[in-house]
Amino acid sequence: MPVTDALIHDPEGGLPRLLAIMRALRDPETGCPWDIEQDFATIAPYTIEEAYEVADAIARADWSDLTGELGDLLLQVVFHAQIAEDRGLFDFSDIADGIADKMVARHPHVFGDESRDKSAEQQTRDWETIKAAERAAARESGTLGGVALGLPALLRAVKLQKRAARVGFDWPGTEGVLAKITEEVAELAEAQASGDADHAEEEFGDLLFVMANLARHMKIDPEAALRRANDKFTRRFERIEALLAEAGKTPDQSDLVEMDALWNRAKAEERQG
Hints:
The protein has helices at residues 3-8, 14-25, 33-37, 40-59, 63-86, 92-106, 108-111, 120-137, 153-166, 174-194, 197-217, 222-246, 256-271. By secondary structure, it is mostly helical. It has three domains: 3-106, MazG-like (Helix Hairpins); 140-220, Orthogonal Bundle (Helix Hairpins); 224-271, no CATH class. The chain is globular.
């Protein structure tokens, strides 16, 4: 059996095995047609999806599932690396070396001669200073340069606001943000009343942007907060369905008044433990 085949079928082959499998899948003559056809753009949505599934496993504290989800995410990195190698751009070693160099450079208090005797807050400030220097060396233009366009909109909003805050463009506390939220709500209501759908969408976006800013000021992860709200809604609505089923009904056989009452019952049950 060729060495490559032996590695591919080695249950303890680790990362070299995974890299060999991806090379085989992308082989233009003997590989998988689907894998061969993929490029960076077609794989990118799967990469984002797998990252969210990792976060979901962590939120559920399902450590067995997390093992598999991290593997799925690692596969995405390996896939992108193989596409790049096929094009002569870079390979997996370049990715690993690049991130290793970055981690060493960004932790001089661990790998260099700087003192470790400083707070986590000071280390965060130092991290941002190093990142700013890296951006300057990469000639990224402007304060907001380098904030990825492909990020989820809510996450990108927070990152943009953090960058602006570094140069002093920020409210000193939550009071100004809350006042801005009140202002944006009024503008959204006015836009809705006007019947201008495009204007209403714009004002709705402004309100979401300010809500993301409030989350940043309150040190809340807005993505995590919204996921938690989604889970709560799902849990309570499923309880509504269960209560209706006990009465021999389905939601479409009910009405808002009844379901709202059942929602309040589900809410009360949760509070009672």
